[in-house]
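Box 4.2: Ligand-aware structure prediction
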Amino acid sequence: MGDGNKSELERVLKVQRDAFTTARPEPMEVRKDRIKRGIALLVDHGEDLARAMSADFGSRSFEATMVTDITSTIGFGKYCLKNMDHWAKTQKRSPRFPLGLLGAKAEVRYEPKGVIGILSPWNFPIQLSLSPLMQVLAAGNRSMIKPSEFTEATSELTKNLIQQYYNEDEVAVITGGPEVAQAFSGLPFDHLVFTGSTQTGAKVMEAAAKNLVPVTLELGGKSPVVLGRSADYEKAGERIAMGKMMNAGQICLAPDYMIVPEEREEAAVAAVQLGVHHMYPTLLDNDDYSSVVTDKHFDRLQSMVEDARGKGAEVIEVNPGDEDFSGSNARKMPLTILRNVTDDMQAMQEEIFGPILPVKTYSQTNEAIDYINGRDRPLGLYYFGNDKAEREEVLTRTISGGVTVNDVLFHVSVEDLPFGGVGPSGMGSYHGPEGFREFSHARAVYTQPKIDIAKLAGLRPPYGDSARKTIAREMKKV
Ligand code: NAD
């Protein structure tokens, strides 16, 4: 499957690295032209790509795909175009006193790294391959992309389009399954960006380590929603339902579980149910609601619900149109709320990545905080409420990749904020100025003045009084 045998991968890498080395230094206009071509590809063929994604999923909202994958990536390209001159500026730094006075100069140049590999998942196949590409190109790099094997039609179309809009020595797409992905992650890139599960991320990092390739890992995890007592429950329910139902919950940042005050549990569950009813009067034939991507993923979610039921959870299926899902092979699954969950349930151990929402309760805020801190550091954390002190308590006593207050997911839509995880939810980030830095090498450049500084300070053998005076001057407590 695919076109990525090892020698072919090595050939493309060599072609790109040679072209990169020969072309240096490339003017910013060349980088900008590459980004503009990426935007043109999406404007010209965004709708074709959205249709390919729908075919890959079985059903996926055309409008939602246009927003999450196409226009968001175009917007990010434009954001890079607007800010890259500023990001790329050489920064003056201060040489140690009094070296600056004597004419020494220190600066940091943000230089391209070379060829950057991008390994992407199936849930947002375009956003998670071409958004990093925009910033990889902004930083002056070349790129090889290996998209997911689960969205085959989209990956093939992406490959054909990239061939039309780029030379192979600028950007190339390699298709194939896990064996190609494995060979890809073992290539001696100058940097590797991986988006996918925590388990695969660990394998990718291990493969990259063999060549000491630096990695950006965009992983997953169980992103909690903390509802404070001061929250507007109706609004919160609607927003949580929206975030959990989008792409049928197959979002790295989807709210994974809710943790709510014990006496407000009924109200919180009712608010989420109401939110679903408002947005999705029906699910089975509703093009606004996505399918689960494959039978295997669907079966995993079904067994997660059965596991919870078997261990004593109350299972609430939110089925606004009262439809019969049992006879359908569309892989559509209604939002399934789980109450009375315990930590031994699969739904409380693994990232859910589908339309299942466990609910936990707390009596004091610190119980919610302790619960979150007792688990892997999540990718996102959501707090609903208008109690500033409580919000700060939740934020300052927990750790997560990012936070949205009074909604879910939204911090990822702010292009100027870094997006990334922490610990098991990832390392490094892109978006924002941080992404440009991530894909650049911060090269330190120091220029020595004419005056012989080492001699002046006595720091050249033979050492004598002058050296001892210099040392004595530094040996002071502050
Ligand atoms: P995955 O880890 O199964 O696959 C991702 C990519 O890794 C695919 O291209 C696949 O071909 C490749 N791969 C598979 N086995 C490999 C191996 N042994 N070595 C190297 N590469 C290998 O993830 P997925 O199921 O496609 O996506 C779902 C996961 O991705 C979820 O955990 C989700 O949270 C996470 N995710 C994270 C983000 C983020 O930005 N942080 C975004 C989307 C998805």
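In the box above, the bound molecule is nicotinamide-adenine-dinucleotide. The domain at 6-219+428-441 is CATH 3.40.605.10 (Aldehyde Dehydrogenase; Chain A, domain 1).
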